[in-house]
Design goal:
With 185 residues, the chain is α+β, with helices and mostly antiparallel strands. The protein has helices at residues 29-40, 78-97, 114-126, 139-176, 181-184, and strands at 8-15, 18-23, 48-53, 56-63, 66-73. It has a 5-stranded antiparallel sheet, with helices on both faces. Helix 2 packs across helix 3 (114-126). It is rod-shaped, with a radius of gyration of 28 Å.
C-alpha cells in the first residue's frame, strides 16, 4: 500500500502509562480512551509489539521509559507502521537531547508536551518518508541474503565432502581389487 496520512488513526508518546503528547486527527475521545487502555497493558519484555484486529493495527515501540504507540489502518504494512513510530522516537529523542522540551519528561503530567509535539506529529504524518537502510528498514533483505549466503557455503562444504568421500572409496576399491580385476571376475 502507498503511504497515506489517512492511514494513521492515532499515535502518542507516553512515559510508562502517562500520555505526554498525542496525534488524534479526528479528535476522537474513543481513540484516546482506547490508547489509555492499551498503554495500561503495554507488553513487558518487548521492544516492538503489534496486533491487528477489526481492520486496525495497534503497534507499540518501546524504548524504556518511553512508549510510542499508534493505531494504523490494517492495509499499511507493519514495517511502515514501525518506521513511522521510529521516526517519532528519533525526533522526540533529538528534542530531548537539544533540550527543546520543557522539563515535562522528568515528572510528566498528562499531555504536558502536547504544545511542543503537535507540529512534530503533523509534520511526520504529512511527510512521505522513504525506507532507508540507516534505520534498519531493509534489515529483512540483509538478513535473508546473509542466510542465503551461509546456506550456499554450507551446501558447497557438504558437496565437497561428499566428493572427497566418494573419491576415497573409489581409490580404496581400486586398491583392494588391483584395478578393475574385480569386474573381470
Amino acid at each position: 500500500m502507498n503511504w497515506s496520512p489517512n492511514s494513521i488513526f492515532y499515535t502518542c508518546i507516553a512515559k510508562h502509562t502517562t500520555i505526554l503528547a498525542e496525534f488524534n486527527p479526528n479528535n476522537s475521545s474513543d481513540l484516546t480512551d482506547l490508547a489509555n487502555k492499551c498503554l495500561q497493558k503495554t507488553p513487558a519484555f518487548h521492544s516492538v509489539f503489534s496486533h491487528t484486529v477489526h481492520n486496525r493495527t495497534y503497534m507499540f515501540f518501546i524504548n524504556d521509559p518511553f512508549v510510542y504507540f499508534g493505531i494504523f489502518d490494517h492495509l499499511l504494512d507493519k514495517h511502515n507502521c514501525l518506521l513511522f513510530l521510529k521516526n517519532v522516537e528519533q525526533v522526540f529523542s533529538g528534542m530531548i537531547e537539544c533540550d527543546k522540551l520543557s522539563s515535562g519528561t522528568m515528572n510528566p503530567s498528562s499531555h504536558c508536551l502536547q504544545r511542543e509535539l503537535s507540529p512534530v506529529f503533523r509534520q511526520l504524518v504529512g511527510a512521505k518518508w522513504e525506507v532507508s537502510s540507516k534505520d534498519g528498514s531493509d534489515e529483512d533483505d540483509g538478513v535473508s541474503s546473509r542466510c542465503r549466503c551461509v546456506w550456499d557455503k554450507q551446501v558447497m562444504v557438504v558437496l565437497c565432502m561428499d566428493v572427497v568421500v566418494c573419491v576415497s572409496l573409489f581409490v580404496i576399491w581400486l586398491w583392494v581389487c588391483d584395478g578393475f580385476r574385480c569386474l573381470a571376475d
